[in-house]
Design a protein that fits this description.
The chain is of the alpha+beta class and about 160 residues long. Helix content is about 30%, strand content about 30%. Keywords: Signal.
Amino acid sequence: MKSKKGIVLILFFVCISGFSAQEVHRAAATYRSSISFDEKRVADIKESLTTESSNFPETIKLFFQELKGNYAVFYDWNGETVYYKYRINKFDKSRARMVRKLAEGAAYEVRGRWEGMIVYQVSTIPLFKKASEVTLEDKKGRFSIPVYDLGEFRELALDEIIY
């Protein structure tokens, strides 16, 4: 009798975990398809910078990764990250409510003012350079990360998520 209950419980948990894994996979696929493959990526933006037009765009379509320190970290289809500063220090609560709405893996159209770059030079320790200090070479660097001041974001949701 006890073994039958044990088997039934095991089967029940296996069925539920299989179902929830499928739902997570379906949700992730839905989020992923909300940004077109043709959308400019961070590498494309860096490549297109010249001495005449050396500014990063204000708006980029990205996926949300995590909150890391004072930054909201986003990434593109290639996995390249962009940092958006949402607070000055851990005591600054002015935009904390706004970033709480961000969901990992969800697609967003993010708007902000470009502040500088995190540059990896000779060592593996990152160095933040303000916009006025950044050279074109730094901007185009493969391992350099653009840093913005977070203005606003808009979730790119499909109709399938709503219904």
